Amino acid sequence: MGSHPINLALRFALELAALAIMGFWGWRQGEGWLRFILAVSVPLVFAVLWGVFAVPDDPSRSGSAPIPVPGLLRLLLELAFFTLGAWMLHRLGFAQYAAVFYLTVVFHYLISYDRISWLLRQ
């Protein structure tokens, strides 16, 4: 199920939503030029971390791993990424949306049990 196209589309949507949340959170943290810098740099930093640290031959990704990491580390990175997105959304005052976002992440990982098992074996 973890590599099913619908589940991959869901994960991609969650990734984009988390990055958008991070950008909005950055925007709300500053004034003037700082808000522009934070709105761009916060999601950019996390997008780079997401894209660079990967498990070699991950069937749910391109298979390339610019910086190879063990599966457990990748899983922790993903969980931290989505948890941070939910936390930022909650801190912005959107508690119900944060709960829906996080529950959707949990649902995604529940149906990705085969990928989680694969990651933990790497």
What does this structure look like?
By secondary structure, the protein is mostly helical. The chain has one domain (5-121). Helices cover 75% and strands 3% of the residues. The protein contains five helices and two strands. It has a two-stranded parallel ribbon. Helix 1 (5-28) packs antiparallel against helix 2. The radius of gyration is 15 Å and the shape is globular.
Quick description:
The chain is about 75% helix and about 5% strand. The chain has about 120 residues and is mainly alpha-helical.
Write the layout of secondary structure elements.
Elements: H1 5-28, H2 32-52, E1 53-54, E2 67-68, H3 71-91, H4 95-111, H5 113-121
Parallel strand pairs: 1-2
Helix pairs in contact: 1-2, 1-3, 1-4, 3-4, 3-5
Shape: globular
The largest β sheet comes out as: 2 strands, parallel
> Can you count the helices?
5
SSE order in H/E notation? HHEEHHH
Q: Uncertain segments of ≥5 residues (pLDDT<50)?
A: none
Q: How are strands sequenced across the largest beta sheet?
A: 1-2
* Helix fraction by DSSP (H/I, runs of at least 4): over 70%
| Gyration radius, in Å | 15 Å
Percent of residues in β-strands: under 5%
- The number of strands is 2
Q: On the 0-100 scale, what is the average pLDDT? A: 92
Termini gap: 18 Å
The tally of domains stands at 1
Class per helix and strand makeup: mainly alpha
